[in-house]
Amino acid sequence: MGVLTELLKKAPLGMLVLIFLLCGDAYAHKKKNHKDIKCIPEDQLTQEQLRNQKFWNHWHRLTKNQQNCLILELEKKNEMIKTIGEAAQCPKIPFNHRSSANTSLFLKTDVKSKKLKAIKKNDNLLFISEASKGWGYVSIRTGNKCIEGYILSKFIVQKDEVDTTKKVGPELISIIEPKWKKINKLIIIDAEGTVSITGAVQEGKIDQILINEEEEQINSDNSFIYLLFVPKTGAEVRIAGNKNGKKVKELIFKVQVGN
């Protein structure tokens, strides 16, 4: 939890409970139809999990485990608020994301659910986790208080991001990194291990991306990132681009180790 710990060094006393949570396994309270959320301390992570965490933190994002730990802290704080009847105070954590457009904070991952608060373009957000397809769980300030809820993921951008669109030329799907050895056919990496594949889709042509049958998020600049483990024997990547539920482009290529 190195990133979360660093962010919370200057947190108020109430937030120090997070340090306690990170010292051992913590679980969310049980609810109907709600699975326990597990927080694994950093010193108990495997080497692969640590590499994965380092990668996502480099891109200013939290791993699923880090998201779980933060969610557990927020749930614990909310339970304390219900018990003592005090309003939620905002944690002293940098709100490193913003809204790219006017939208709303929703009670559920449904635009028909209750709107908790109107969000204006460039309002600061504390991005907590990807809640479900197309939605993010965030915290926003209202005065010196905070409200948690759901916002459409397409409106969540990092503060240092400029609203520019990735250009992919005539291709509907383009791979930006790593570089091609053979265009649209082969990528060569130096050694086995985890590699991040960064690509982009053509503006307005693709609204869903599936990589090896797993849906990946398309960011506001039309880019996407996929983390792939490549063994010595190499790996195959299958990317399908859909528009309104219909496949419009498929890209299949191999990632090999060595020359």
Overall 3D geometry?
globular
| Tally of individual domains | 3
Low-pLDDT segments, ≥5 res: 3-33, 83-87
The overall pLDDT, averaged over residues, is 77
Question: Which strand-content bin applies to the residues?
Answer: 35-45%
State the separation between the terminal residues, measured CA to CA: 37 Å
- The number of strands is 17
Largest sheet: 5 strands, antiparallel
How do the strands line up in the largest sheet? 8-7-6-3-9
Q: Which series of helices and strands comes N to C?
A: HHEEHHEEEEEEEEEEEEEEE
**Category by helix and strand content:** alpha+beta
Helix percentage range: 10-25%
Integer-rounded radius of gyration: 20 Å
Number of helices: 4
Model description:
The chain folds into 3 domains: about 1-85, no CATH class; about 95-160, SH3 type barrels (Roll), CATH 2.30.30.40; about 175-255, Immunoglobulins (Immunoglobulin-like), CATH 2.60.40. The relative contact order is 0.11. The protein has helices at about 1-5, 15-20, 45-60, 65-85; strands at about 25, 40, 95-100, 105, 115-120, 125-130, 135-140, 145-150, 155-160, 175, 185-190, 195-200, 210, 215, 225-230, 235-245, 245-255. The chain has about 260 residues and is an alpha+beta fold. The strands form 5 sheets. A 5-stranded antiparallel β-sheet has the order 8-7-6-3-9, covered by helices on one side. Strand 4 (about 105) and strand 5 form a beta hairpin. Helix content is about 15%, strand content about 40%. Mean pLDDT is about 75; it is low at about 5-35 and about 85.
